[in-house]
Each structure stands twice: as C-alpha cells, then as structure tokens.
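Format notes (please read before filing issues)

Several people have asked whether sequences and structure tokens are stored in separate files. They are not. Every record keeps both together, in the order shown below: the sequence lines, then the token lines. Line labels are part of the format and must not be stripped during preprocessing.
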Amino acid sequence: MKISQRFAFSLLMCAGVMFAAPFATAQDGMRPVGQLTYTPEVQTGVFQLRPEDRDIRAMRIEARGGAVDIQNVRLVYRNGESERIRVRERLRPGGMTAIIRKQNRGPLRAVEVNYIPQGQVTLVLRANAGGGGGGGEPPPVATWNELGCKSVGFLIDRDVVNVASPELYRALRLRSTGLDIEMLDMNVRFANGQRDTYRVNAIIRSGERSPPIDLRGERRRIVAVELIYRTRGLSTQKTRLCIDGLQVRRGVNGLEEE
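Then the structure lines:
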C-alpha cells in the first residue's frame, strides 16, 4: 500500500472513531427517569343466593371467556356467621375449581370470591342441590356426549348436524381435528320448534375444544345444529368439526323435562 493510501485510510479510521465516540457516550449516559410496574389486583365478587339455592352443600367456580386466579372464597351464612376457604387455583377459560364444601350445616346467604383476573373474565358459581343437613338429593350427574360430526371445507361455509339423541342437554362445545376452525355462529333447533342463535366468534385449534356454550333454558332436547364457520389455512388434510352435548341425568336436582 502506498504512503498516501495509508495516510488516507488512517484519517478515515480516526474520523470514524471520533464520530462514534459521542454516540456511544450519549447512549451510555442515559439514565432511567421513570418506571411503571403493573401488578394485577385482587378483586372481590359476591354471588347473592336465591332462597331456593341457600341449602347447597358443595360448589365449584367456573371461568368463562378468560383466565383467572381464584384466591379464596368466603361463605356467608344466613345467621351472619362466615367461613373462609382457601382455594389458590388458576383457571383457564372453561376451567373449574375443585369442589368447595361448606363445613357449617346452616343455609347460605352469599358466596364471596377473591380473585385476580388475567383480562376480561366471567365467573359462574355452580352448586349441587340438597339440604345442609345432608338429607337432600344427590348432585346431578353430568356427562359430555358426542352429538355428531361434519367434514368441513375451506373458506366460509355452513353445515347442519342432525341430532338423533332423545336426551336433554344443558350446554354444547365444539371440537376440531385437522385444521384450525374459526367458528362464527351456531343456530340450534330444539324439539319444541324453537330456534336460538349463539354468536361464538372463537378460534378452535386442531385437537382442542371450545369453552362450553350454555343453552338458553335449563335443559333442552336438540333436533339440529347449524354451524357457520371457516377453516384457517389451505390443506388437503381432512378436517372434522364435532359437537358434544352436556347431558344431565333425568329427574335429578328437580329439573323439569321439556
């Protein structure tokens, strides 16, 4: 390399160092001037019980639409006494706590729940029947039964699943095998001729189930379910969309057949 070239190269290197030095100094000299820390707060919700529900003996808390940390519950009895039960369970959407049993045999007036929501969530109190003295009816037996499946196509589509089961159902859920499915709407036709529309707007991942979709009315006999959906992605893989129904044993818990 000639002397003039070496001299020019040295000048360029020095200029680069001089230019970068203030930059590095400015960055290194930055200091924190503010700080925000977000901590989810414990919230309290109260389920006020109707007179006909105050003799419940055991209960569970269900999360709908979001995740939540259930910290504890306080059972408030009609005579003014209370009982606090530690829970410490994290629920995903559709999940329920373990069974919470009261120790006192008296009737309840309210159930107070301390929880930390992980976003928007709805809490549902589920309880069995029976008197506090233990002489009531046994809790209802609930099982999920497959009502039918459909092979689904691409883009927006709709299919009807005819239901031949004579049983009564309280809720429905959906399952996908193959591709993910974006479920839009579900129209349900009941044995008495009534039709109900349920806005779902949920992504059902392959191999997973949707959260339970409660039917309007305590228990219903279903004739057909119309599904409006679209698959996500393009594939030759066979995709099936299935419907499960939550059945409650007949004559249990004083429920009336329709």
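For reference, the curators noted about this record: The longest strand covers residues 180-190. Residues 3-28 form the longest helix (26 residues).
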